[in-house]
Design goal:
- The chain is an alpha+beta fold.
- It has two domains: about 1-120, Alpha-Beta Complex (Aspartate Aminotransferase, domain 1), CATH 3.90.1150; about 125-165, no CATH class.
- The chain has four helices and six strands.
- The protein has helices at about 1-20, 105-120, 135-140, 155-160, and strands at about 25-30, 35-40, 50-60, 65-70, 85-90, 90-100.
- A six-stranded antiparallel beta sheet has the order 1-2-3-4-6-5, with helices on one face.
- Strand 1 (about 25-30) and strand 2 (about 35-40) form a beta hairpin.
- Helix 1 runs parallel beside helix 2 (about 105-120).
- It is elongated and about 65 Å long.
Length: about 170
């Protein structure tokens, strides 16, 4: 499990650096049951926003296995490793469980692809109208805010991207 935590922390760090994200945007939470959960944090309110995935090591018998829990919506978006045993639970209609009998490079790639997908497609639920740069943004016909992540919460940026210039 420690190796998996380190891999996940490295993936989060590399995404933070490469996408110039705030360090607290992707959160790795340690749960009481020993599992770990990856969350995306709202940029304005600093509250949990989007469940990305959860993982744990299960040992129902003497043979342990690695379990990755992901939102069902992800299943059609990212290639599932061939070594995954896919399990759904009737009482849990929003998540799919991927079980792996042994560690392999496909799992690390899947974890990276999963976190990257949710980061790249993140839309903040708490938004603001525009910032003080709205006139310069209008002239440039695009958002000029230096913090590209924070700018995702700007309604005016969406309008500019759709060709609607108000100022």
């Amino acid at each position: 499990m420690e190796m998996l935590n380190q891999i996940t922390e490295n993936i989060i760090h590399e995404l933070n650096v490469s996408l110039e994200l705030p360090e607290d945007f992707i959160s790795l939470e340690h749960n009481k049951n020993g599992s770990k959960t990856v969350w995306l944090i709202e940029p304005l309110t600093k509250t949990k926003s989007k469940f990305v995935m959860s993982y744990s090591i299960k040992s129902p018998t003497k043979k342990s296995y690695f379990c990755l829990e992901v939102p069902n919506a992800l299943i059609d978006k990212i290639s599932i490793p061939e070594t995954a045993e896919i399990k759904t639970i009737k009482s849990n209609t929003i998540h799919t469980f991927l079980n792996f009998r042994s560690w392999n490079a496909e799992i690390e790639k899947f974890i990276e692809d999963t976190i990257t997908y949710y980061v790249e497609n993140f839309k903040p639920s708490v938004k603001f109208g525009c910032c003080h740069r709205y006139k310069e943004c209008s002239d440039a016909k695009k958002c000029l805010h230096p913090d590209k992540f924070y700018a995702r919460a700007c309604y005016y940026k969406e309008n500019l991207e759709n060709g609607k210039i108000f100022y």
